[in-house]
Design brief:
With 170 residues, this protein is of the alpha+beta class. It has seven helices and four strands; from the N terminus they run H-H-E-H-E-H-E-H-E-H-H. The chain binds flavin mononucleotide.
Length: 170
């Protein structure tokens, strides 16, 4: 599949089967995160892969992960991220998000479902996973085998704003 075809095939999956994600597939997803770019190559992101029953229960106390069998908690250390000198903007969230997107598209390519989750209680998550103080959870990527019918690849003309609203040329 081309990257565009993969992007069109991806959709948020909010129901999963109990089928375990194969180790090989998980490692490919993590490799996609590993090769992702970060600002000035500062690499402030750290991934916590949660797949034990206890771990998933802890994550579920902070967020709805829809019965996913893997939750990758994408964290970052602000002090390690690049800062733009003009206005002090720190790229932590951007860096974490690029890694998340790389993983999400790779999951689709491997036939897995996923959903990106930001609706979580950070304090509950940090405590539940015993995250070190320097790590801020930014995204959760829930992964697993979808229990939903496949989304229509052509749905975006209905579910997204029009191209001419999205894009302007100057
Ligand atoms: C930054 C971000 C945060 C999101 N947070 C959540 C979330 O907490 N829970 C959830 O069910 N979906 C979440 N989503 C999924 C979006 O709701 C979904 O991507 C959007 O509605 C478009 O649908 P699609 O992914 O099926 O194309 C999030 C997506 C993004 C990009």
């Amino acid at each position: 599949m081309s990257v565009l075809d993969t992007a069109k095939a991806r959709s948020s999956v909010r129901a999963y089967t109990e089928q375990t994600v194969e180790e090989e597939k998980l490692q490919k997803i993590l490799e996609a995160a590993h090769v992702a770019p970060t600002a000035a190559n500062m690499q402030p992101v750290r991934l916590v892969v949660v797949r034990s029953k206890e771990g998933l229960l802890a994550v579920s106390k902070s967020a709805n992960i829809y019965g996913a069998t893997v939750a990758v908690v994408v964290c970052a250390d602000k002090s390690k991220a690049w800062t733009r000198p003009f206005d002090g903007m720190v790229t932590t969230d951007i860096d974490a998000t690029i890694l998340t997107d790389h993983m999400m598209l790779t999951a689709t390519d491997l036939g897995l479902g996923s959903v990106w989750i930001c609706y979580f209680n950070p304090d509950v998550l940090k405590q539940g996973l015993n995250l070190p103080r320097n790590l801020e959870p930014i995204n959760i990527l829930a992964l697993g085998y979808s229990a939903e019918p496949k989304a229509d690849k052509e749905r975006h003309s209905q579910t997204r704003i029009a191209m001419d609203e999205l894009v302007q040329y100057k």
